[in-house]
């Protein structure tokens, strides 16, 4: 399969300016990597947040910057030591914006072969691109067992191990922000773990989607914390809530809802990397409650093993319908349509869907 010397990439030349489509070199894979022709890339809130300070100062290490961490495509070149893949394989993977060659808002990217999953025939490229970052983030905050001090996860029993499907069976799960990409995968992981009931908050128009994923009760996210907390004992049949997940931790009251819903000794997962990113009264909840944190990357020493274990499961889960991708909203004009998509994300005009672009369709 022939590979061009150059490609179209979405680039940010300096902070607080719009992304532009530019010609860039096609990277070549290292010994353990594969080069993927990207057929679909999905957008995440960080892709608009990183344009301006403070996130531009935190995330951008060099210029020009190429965004994107979710992708699906076709393997077009295989490194000499890469195992398990061949040219022509359809794969999904999580990119990385630490270097342009790893980012996904472009027509080609390289990725370590071990951190890819074959896309089964029942899943499209667009659907596959909705999966990597959110699923990885959820799995790491729930299940990462690394003893490293950097691992701040809840260390729950993983659903791919026999004990992980029985240890929490019949116990309630409370997921705040269920219609987000993170929330949709959290609901499905809770279902795999046997939690019951699975209660979530979302806009009412997303209720049928979330019940199809495994939620048993969908509560209107606009309700007050007090009214939701008052109803929870009825929904759980009096069973204590020992596990809660906040998919929208940048809303302080969402974090407090998760904290207050927990029984003493319960576990709260939040998708931020450190306690300093949430209200102090949530980071230190009292009553023996504990809080788990995450950095959503499988390329760190303390996340690698958990990431490898997850990637061994993804193809089978998708093939069997155990895991469902997010609903897709396709952006027009390939990479050229991404700025418009990011504006919609920033304005909170995306609900229950993942925005996806097809880089190969860039004018």
UniProtKB/TrEMBL annotation:
GO terms for molecular function: oxidoreductase activity, acting on NAD(P)H. InterPro entries: ADH-like_C, ADH-like_N, ER, GroES-like_sf, NAD(P)-bd_dom_sf, Trans-enoyl_RdTase-like. Residues 5-356 form the Enoyl reductase (ER) domain. Pfam families: ADH_N, ADH_zinc_N. This is GroES-like protein.
